[in-house]
Amino acid sequence: MTSARGRSVAPAAEWLLARVLPSGMRDQLLADLAELAPSRSRPRVWYWGQLLRTLWPPTLVALYTESTRPDQAWPDTEGGNAMTWLESLVADVRRSGRTLRRRPAFALTAVATLAIGIGATTAMFSVTWGVALRPLPFEHHDRLMGICTRADVISPDACVLSPPNAEDLKRRVPGIAYLGIGRRWDAKLRLGDQAEIVSTAVLTPDVFRALGVRAQRGRLIEEKDLIGRHGVVAVISDDFWRTRLGAQDVIGEPLTLDGEPVTIVGVLPPGLEIPWIQRVAVWRPLHLNPTDEENRGWAGFHPFALARDGYSPQRLAREVASAAQALRAEHFATTAGWDLHVRTLSDLVVGRSRHLLLVFLGSVALLLLVACANVANLMLEQAIARRREWGIRTALGASPERIVTLQLTESFLLAFAGALGGLGIAVAGVRALKRLAPPGLPRLEQVSVDATVLAFATAVAVLTAVLFGLWPAMRAAAVQLSELLRSGGRTSTAARTRLSSTLVVAQIAIAMTLVAGAGLLARSFQRMAAWNPGFDPARLVTFSVSASRDKYPDRARIVGLWSAIEEQVGAIPGVQAVSSASAGPMFGGGDGAQDFTVEGQDRARPAYWFNVGPSYFHTLGVPVVQGREFDVRDAAGRTPVAIVNESFARQYVPTGDAVGTRVLSDGQPPLTIVGVARDVPPFTPGAPVQPQLWYALRQETRGFVYIVARYGGDPATLAPAVRQALRRVDPDLQPGNYRTIADIAREELRRPLFNALLLAAFALTALALAGIGTYALLAYHVRRRVREMGIRLALGAKPADVAALVLRDGLAVGLPGLVLGVVGGLVAGRLLTSLAPGVSPTDPGSLAAAALGILAVALLACLAPARRAAALPPAITLQAEDT
Amino acid sequence: MTRDFLGEFEHLVMLAIAREGGDAAGARIHAQLEQVARRDASLPAIYVTLARLERKGYLRSRMTSADAGRQRRLFSVTKAGAAALRRTRDALERLWDPASGRP
Q: Which residue in the set A63, A74, A79 is minimally distant from B44, CB to CB?
């Protein structure tokens, strides 16, 4: 109280200071402040300033550090000052720190174990949060939806829509504010003298509107730009603008795409990544009339819808459902399973990654539990060793709550030290995951250890401290000194042993579950790596070529171009066969499925369709089991022909003779089947072969194809000859995506390999920790039963008998753990079904291998204690006191 | 007891106490720093330094009852503290003196 009238100049500030200041300095500081304040020009402001300077963390820490030092000059009980809670906490933390420093082996082991568990969990959470859980970086992200076409042949993972359907939905569904469609459509860009294939996309103006994108410069695509062919305007990405155009003022400047000049009308904002259509340099208006009925069945575009304010996904889904009903009746009555589904864009973007990442997050949480169990056992052991100390404290007046607080402070200190170490592991782990992760994980580049992740790590640290610290703390509090004195130090440790054993059983079960899961992924990867398509993928080279519109404006010229290319490439020494295709096994975009009706049947059936040139199957090495390949007879103006695969023939032409059968498709002349090709097993093991139909490229031509060539030598040496061959045909031609099919398959394997390795890493770590836990438990058993073993030996038991006792103890935890682990493994199998194609969830091979692994580790853990027990001299054992 | 040199703020605080003729309370030390050294110091920072200096053996403190029976802690410089002050002053003077020997 400071002023002359006896009232404080700043009562609230004084009240706060009284609660914050350490007791040893509190009264003095307050008295000095009271003395100094009145002489200030603005006493209250000055007083509050002193409070703020006291609360400045470095100052506060220094105050408490000085006042709680053991050699502090000002005793804190002076004048009966009660410790503030903060002071008490600091003192407890210092005491715990001293205690832990006196037991460095225990402290380091505990901290290291926790660091591994917390670090791995934090790293996995960081990736899961960044990729799967964080909201999409678009305005109104919660109202962004995809309206996806469903049909028997369309993959459930795909979300696609046809342009006429999109137009109809916009008109018929009141809940849609904007609905745009878009897709990738690579084109050849000419900049100066350089020609190259760039990633471009076509879309309708509503795509940018739905996503809330605004141009950084100029404008975006508008309705007036949709003129039914590749529009004459384009919008470019910020990255393209900076790296290729020097960030100059390019609005109104021309670009040459596929031989056509387009005018740049806008630049997109930096960092924009549109789902499904990433890393696109140039965006152009949709090049076809969206209302053209010919495209009704072409579900080849990604939809981007923004629901109106107030519309939940369910409400929009209901409106879309009734529009879908009308559309089905009008256009898709004969298409099996046709429907429209609404899903949030976030779900669609993250897709299967969410499931995958949550599986990994769950796995790593299990690893953390194993780590906590280890540390809990360590702490239990410490609690027993220090029970004399606890007994004395209790006798001296410490309440059970106080003992629990002291023990928990130690736990928290260990947990936070572990969390600090874990953070280091997490940062390194995230970096490694980003570098090693295969393509296909969306938004991975944006993953980082940010504030959310740090908050998560802190929460995990607190949770683990409670998890592994609470039981030992309560055990410590329950110790009574009188009981200690009575029993001469031999307290019952049965409860402790039971709990320890339970913890080890749990560890073994968890480790077994993780190992079984990793085994499943490994076997699935193995089956994928053993893909045998029926031909040699290493001998097949593919590359893409694009026919520019100005030079090849009509079908005849395009067909002439493909023929000339095939001729030139076929003439290269070593090339055994060459053909062209819109897509094939592992290469090409694939246009999805279309409905075909076999003449004489009333039901339309879906099939995947492709365009291929003459000798395509011969080039691949896939036999044509009935009829013939396409050849020069199958030219424009001749009878439209098709080749189908065995699955198509088997399912749709049950009479058995598909050759000669006619197939009808909406809006197209009937096709005559001239050949049936052998089924090529898909890359995904266990997946069925889909019905497929091939058009003759000479009849149904395209401006962008893949050339496929079978080469006898090293494919890398073919590349220069290919470039020369193309230049001979047309100096502007460039091969794109030059690869062998084996290369593509190897790329596809990256993801399953990564998944298998990551889960294996978690599993092996858990196994190691479980092994250490088992070893520690058995070592404790040996110490505890030293006397009993001595008596047995003295009574004539052989060392091997004593060792067998230890082994029996090991089996007593190993077997229950194994059994529980098998159950866990079966559950894991169910969760991993979608990630481990081609392997049964109850795959006995994986479970058996996992079980053997666990048994081996358990036996190894038993070895040292068993040997030690067998080597005990009886005299020593009899002298020993039970611990 | 250490034979270190004083830190910058420690030096100021010790001098402020010395100027009071020994037996200075926190408020007086603050006033010396503010008015003579023209140094705007916070009281908590002064107290942290006082505690540290006493731990090092450069200060001693005692409780005394002031007005209305309220006790005040008064600080005075010990012999070791005076020696540390002299040591630090001498070092500073040598460095300030351009004529003193070059290394």
A: A63
Residues A29, B52: C-beta atoms closer than 8 Å = no
What sign does the dihedral A12-A14-A16-A19 (CA atoms) show? negative
CB count within 10 Å of CB A134 equals 17
Query: Taking CB atoms and an 8 Å limit, are A25 and B51 in contact across chains?
Result: yes
Question: A50 contacts in B (CB within 8 Å)?
Answer: 42-44
Q: Nearest residue of A to residue B57 by CA position?
A: A73
Q: Which residues of B touch A (CB under 8 A)?
A: 25-27, 30-31, 42-45, 47-48, 51-52, 54-55, 61, 63, 70-73
Contact B14, B82 (CB under 8 A): no
Question: Is the ipTM of this structure higher than 0.95?
Answer: no
Q: How far apart, in whole angstroms, are the C-alpha atoms of residue A650 and residue A685?
A: 21
Helix (H, G, I), strand (E, B) or coil at A850: helix
Tell me what pLDDT residue A78 has. Answer: 44
Per-residue model confidence as pLDDT tens digits over A441-481: 777 888 888 888 888 888 888 888 887 787 777 777 776 65
For A18, the token pair is 């009284």
- Determine, for residues B30 and A67 on separate chains, whether the beta-carbon distance falls below 8 Å: no
Q: Report the C-alpha gap between A663 and A668 in whole angstroms.
A: 10
Burial level of A591, CB count in 10 A (0-12/13-18/19+)? Answer: middle
**What is the reported pLDDT for A466?**
81
CA–CA gap between residue A572 and residue A560 (Å, rounded): 19
Evaluate whether A526 touches A838 at the Cβ level (below 8 Å): no
Q: Looking at residue A299, what is its pLDDT?
A: 83
pLDDT band at B66 (very low <50, low <70, confident <90, very high): low
| CB of A212 less than 8 A from some CB of B | no
A74 or A468, greater pLDDT:
A468
CB neighbourhood size of A459 (10 A): 11
Distance (Å, whole) CA A719 – CA A202: 30
In terms of CA atoms, which chain A residue is nearest residue B45? A59
Nearest by CB to residue B43, choosing from A32, A69, A73, is A32
What CA–CA distance (Å, rounded) separates B67 from A115? 56
Query: Do residue B31 and residue A33 have CB atoms under 8 angstroms apart?
Result: no
What tokens appear for A534 in the block? 């029926």
The pLDDT of residue A483: 62
Model pLDDT for residues A617-652, shown as the tens digit of each residue: 999 999 999 999 999 889 888 999 999 999 999 999
Structural tokens at position A726: 């193309």
Burial class (CB in 10 A: 0-12, 13-18, 19+), A654: exposed
Q: Which of B13, B47, B53 to mutate against chain A (most A CBs within 10 Å)?
A: B47
Cβ A436 vs Cβ A754: under 8 Å: yes
- From residue A863, how far is each of A508, A799, A806, A808, A871 by CA, in Å? 17, 13, 9, 12, 12
Residue that wins the pLDDT comparison between A197 and A854: A854
* Count of alpha carbons within 13 angstroms of residue A315, beta-carbon side: 11
Chain A nearest CA to B88, separation (Å):
24
DSSP string, A421-438: HHHHHHHHHHHHHHHHSP
- Report how far apart, in Å, the C-alpha atoms of A813 and of each of A88, A110, A367, A639, A852 are: 42, 22, 19, 75, 15
Q: B71 and A62 in contact by Cβ < 8 A?
A: no
